[in-house]
């Protein structure tokens, strides 16, 4: 039976790890509000517009591909921190992009962050959770994805009327949760399963 202090600790650690899901949802949904101003500002063709939207999926595939083996090698916590840094860099880069090629580069980088977070956040949560509440805690990742989508739509709505650079602010908002994710990750433990697999009982 878990003690109340253990439950509070598990809840806190789960909330922090599940921030990866929030950033996942936010990054994927915020595009709905920025595509029109980006299209107008950079005079995008239909093909360029399509590539802008879909390029994140390329990064996502790459993020999923390398994150599993990397987390086995250096640990879940460090790879989650890498995802937070990728989210942070992409949000800052997006906000200051002055040409289409740079914009695409940061879009791919954001996709990599999504791929890493979507793979490692639920893995980490499932490995720290006791069997009796594993489903409940792992489900928090999905809740955070939906919350991130909702917040992205609200941000898009609130910032849509502030001018032609509104898209920069919509993307720039992601700096706040990404920085918070990176800072809070320093306070969580490494996955117990990973420690055992690496002879660190």
Give a brief rundown of this model.
The chain has helices at 4-42, 46-74, 76-96, 100-128, 134-159, 166-172, 175-185, 192-197. The chain is built from 8 helices and no strands.
N-to-C order of helices and strands: HHHHHHHH
Distance between the termini: 22 Å
Helix share bin:
over 70%
Number of helices: 8
Shape: elongated
Rounded to an integer, what's the Rg over CA atoms? Answer: 18 Å
Note the beta-strand portion: under 5%
Mean of residue pLDDT values: 92
Total beta strand runs: 0
Global structural class: mainly alpha
Outline the low-pLDDT stretches: none
- Largest sheet report: none
Walkthrough of the structure:
The protein is mainly α. The chain has eight helices and no strands. The chain starts with a helix and ends with a helix. The mean pLDDT is 92.
What is the element layout, followed by pairings?
Elements (H helix, E strand, L loop, with lengths): L3 H39 L3 H29 L1 H21 L3 H29 L5 H26 L6 H7 L2 H11 L6 H6 L4
List keywords for this structure.
8 helices, mainly alpha, about 200 residues, elongated
């Amino acid at each position: 039976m878990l003690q109340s202090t253990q439950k509070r600790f598990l809840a806190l650690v789960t909330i922090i790890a599940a921030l990866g899901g929030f950033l996942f949802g936010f990054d994927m949904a915020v595009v709905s509000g920025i595509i029109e101003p980006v299209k107008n500002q950079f005079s995008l063709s239909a093909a360029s517009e399509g590539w802008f939207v879909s390029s994140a999926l390329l990064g996502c595939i790459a993020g999923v591909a390398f994150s599993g083996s990397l987390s086995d090698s250096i640990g879940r916590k460090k790879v989650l921190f890498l995802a937070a840094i990728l989210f942070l860099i992409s949000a800052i880069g997006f906000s200051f992009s002055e040409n289409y090629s740079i914009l695409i580069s940061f879009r791919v980088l954001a996709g990599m962050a999504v791929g890493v977070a979507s793979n490692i956040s639920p893995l980490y949560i499932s490995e720290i959770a006791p069997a009796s509440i594993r489903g409940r805690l792992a489900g928090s990742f999905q809740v955070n994805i939906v919350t991130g989508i909702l917040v992205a739509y609200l941000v898009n709505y609130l910032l849509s009327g502030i001018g032609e650079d509104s898209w920069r602010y919509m993307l720039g908002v992601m700096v706040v949760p990404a920085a918070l994710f990176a800072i809070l990750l320093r306070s969580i433990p490494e996955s117990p399963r990973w420690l055992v697999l690496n002879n660190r009982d």
